[in-house]
Amino acid sequence: MKFNLRKRRFPVIPLSSTSDIGFLLLIFIMLVSLINYRHEVKIDYPEATKQGYTQSKKNFEIWIDRDGIIYYDGKIAAVKDLEFLITDAVQKRPDIRIHILADKNTKYKYVNDVVEILKLMEHRVVSFVVKELNK
Amino acid sequence: MKAKIKKRSFIDATASGTLSDLGFLLIIYFIVIAGFTLNQGFIINLPQKNSTKIVNVEDIMKLYLDVNGDITYNNKTVSYDELKGMIKEKVSIKPNMVVLLKIDPEVVYQKVVDIINMAKELNIDNFSFSIKKDET
Predict the structure, then answer these.
(1) Residue A23 touches chain B, beta carbons under 8 Å
(2) Between chains, do A52 and B42 touch, taking CB under 8 Å as contact?
């Protein structure tokens, strides 16, 4: 009787599959970043030199453009609506930090309107977001 | 004469590991980009409602920021650098001095940020600001 001896194959790692994994991971990260998409409003940031990081785990960003229009989550929000939005956000996350991102050329009265609401709600901390001054 | 014709070598793109490198470089790029959205600024502590603090009148330095962004102290317009020097001098004499800034509602936000920045620069512990209400 004659046995057929199989030839031993030389082990090869298929490199072509790693590129697939890489791109799948890329797509995954891109989708995740879309979920956490930050609705930015086009503003000129005020500039300062002695600023610090004010980022918290969860932030509530109030945007004020040059004309004093207030935005939250990319949508225009009235000053009165902010009260409800902030209350809702604070109830969900008590450690949430309020950030005011206002255009450097906006009138201070618009920023003050938001600050007054926070005072009324007895909110203790607010962050004025600025950009580092380019020397 | 016999011309040698080179055989065109076939490159198998799928067999190379360069695509995976590219993929991972893009992942690193996205991770780095994610860090750029960190907010920088000033953390302001808001006062409690109806909270009053008794301060000696002599320990208060009252400043006014007008609509043009000019700072007035003791009815005199002072420059940013002059004010800086004055506050430094006063704080060295009275470390508990309170700097009170009254802001014109029409002033641009950048001017307010400049003063807050200065207060940070000079390490003023008692710095307070509010909008100037009409006294009519």
Answers:
(1) yes
(2) yes
Residues of A in contact with B14 (CB under 8 A): 16, 19
- Beta carbons within 8 Å of B97's beta carbon, 6+ residues apart: B59, B60, B61, B90, B91, B124, B126
Select from B20, B42, B112 the Cβ nearest to the Cβ of A108. B112
pTM of the model: 0.75
Give yes or no for residue A135 having a pLDDT over 60: no
Instruction: Express each pLDDT in B62-98 by its tens digit.
Output: 999 999 999 999 889 999 899 999 988 888 888 888 8
ipTM above 0.85 for this complex: no
